[in-house]
Design goal:
The chain is mostly helical and about 240 residues long. Helix content is about 75%, strand content about 0%. The chain contains 10 helices and no strands.
């Protein structure tokens, strides 16, 4: 699993947003469980849903801490509304899907309700009650640690900013980086940091561009490790043949 994750980081460099990583992980896991294509695809969607939910929860919390500052800047004021609303919508959607998929402990559906049965089974795979909350808690921890690492990078390049403010800037940037906008996310990180850091008093482009270059360097280092993991995997598979 660790090798697949690192391989995904490598392939993110060649596709729009995170699509390359998802495709590489799907292809890698398919070799071990070719008879479970549907569940593998749903597991990738589940991974995205849990990660998105955790990021929205973290952002909503830190935006609450920075509410007065964000309301004072018209350019970022929509964030103070949009992110908490999106977080609430995510929580409501998950709750509604759980209500639909787990009405009783009975077996889902019958032959006369084939499509309904398939849909409910897909929801159960996507949102397994016993492990979903644990996965969300683990993802929350990872999101905070990633933001903390980027926060240290910001201080290293001379951006003196509080952790809650940095969490808003870096969290929203991470949210934008997940969108399939440009290949290898080129330009997205720069633009987001320029816009968001300006709202916290950093009007000069030098500091945001320096931070963007630093974060890109960190991503490239992990992608290099992912490239080695991919090469190792392909060499191992070729020897087995």
């Amino acid at each position: 699993m660790a090798r697949l994750t690192l391989t995904g980081l490598f392939f993110n460099l060649f596709f729009l947003g995170s699509a390359g990583g998802d495709a590489a992980r799907f292809a890698g896991t398919l070799g071990h469980a070719a008879d479970r294509k549907a569940k593998l695809a749903l597991s990738l969607i589940q991974d995205r849903l849990v990660g998105l939910g955790a990021l929205l929860l973290v952002l909503a919390g830190f935006i609450g801490m920075q509410g007065p500052r964000l309301w004072g800047e018209p350019s970022v004021r929509p964030l103070a509304i949009g992110v908490p609303v999106a977080c609430a919508a995510f929580a409501a959607a998950v709750s509604a899907l759980w209500f639909l998929a787990y009405p009783t402990d009975a077996v889902i559906g019958d032959n006369s309700r084939h499509w309904r049965a398939l849909s409910l089974e897909a929801i159960r795979v996507l949102l397994p009650k016993p492990v979903f909350m644990r996965a969300l808690a683990f993802s929350l921890t990872i999101q905070v640690l990633v933001i903390a690492a980027a926060f240290l990078a910001a201080w290293a390049v001379g951006i003196g900013i509080s952790f809650p403010a940095a969490a808003v800037v870096l969290g929203v940037t991470a949210l934008a980086l997940s969108l399939p906008v440009t290949v290898a996310r080129l330009g997205v990180r720069d633009g987001m940091l320029l816009w968001l850091l300006a709202a916290f008093g950093f009007k000069s482009p030098a500091a945001p561009i320096s931070l963007s270059a630093c974060l890109l360097g960190i991503c490239l280092c992990w992608a290099f490790v992912g490239g080695i993991a991919f090469y190792w995997t392909t060499q191992t598979d070729s020897r087995k043949r």
